[in-house]
Amino acid sequence: MQFAEMMGDLGVRMALASTPQAKGRVERAHRTIQLRLPTDCLRFGISDYDRLNEWFNGYYAPYINAKFAFAPRDPADRFGPAPSEAELARVFRRREARRASGGVIAYGGSTWALVDALGEVRDPGPGAAVGVYTDAVDGSFYAEVDGRRLSLVEVGRRDRRGPVWLDDELRLQEYLREMGRDGAAG
To answer: How do the pLDDT tens digits run along the chain, 186 residues long?
Structure first.
């Protein structure tokens, strides 16, 4: 889903194989090429990495492409101008949606405050949609609300203990006592 959204942002229409047979043919072609490579290396006397690199890029890749490639149905060039760095940064990022509550969101086991450039917590309203992003290039982690970029500042962690396995009566009794102590203290 993340990849499809990125391609849509770039204006690329994805043509997905809708049949298992088409996917199988691609996998079979890849396997054929992978199986041929070691044999062809021996046949052409390739014995070291530097020579392999030169031979593969200069001869083998074009040879394999010519042998197994099919001409496109529409040979017209569909490439457009390359996006700017700022546009690419908006495309290549992990996207998730959250709902705000009092200027905070829950994400990854923590509570995060939505903070603007002045360092003030911004509350977009109860239940407002918040986009949470992780940049694929520089790893920055931030939120967007109504097109405005906000920093995320961790303000708390949620305690998630996970399942407790009580496989005998003694452990059950101990666990219940601990719960009683914790409950009496709070």
So the answer is: 788 888 888 888 887 767 777 677 778 888 888 888 888 899 999 988 889 999 999 999 898 888 877 777 787 877 778 888 878 888 888 999 999 998 999 998 889 999 999 999 999 998 899 999 998 888 889 999 998 999 999 998 876 666 667 677 777 788 778 777 655 544
What residues have CB less than 8 Å from 10, skipping those under 6 apart?
83, 91
**Cβ-based neighbour number of residue 130 at 10 Å:** 23
Query: What sign for the dihedral angle of Cα 123, 124, 125, 131?
Result: negative
Measured CA to CA, the distance from residue 65 to residue 59 in angstroms comes to: 10
Claim to verify: residue 115 and residue 47 sit in the same structural domain: no
In a domain, 104, yes or no: yes
pTM over 0.70: no
Domain that holds residue 56: 2-68
Tell me, yes or no, whether 104 and 164 share the same domain: yes
Domain count, the chain: 2
Q: Let me know whether 19 and 101 are in one domain.
A: no
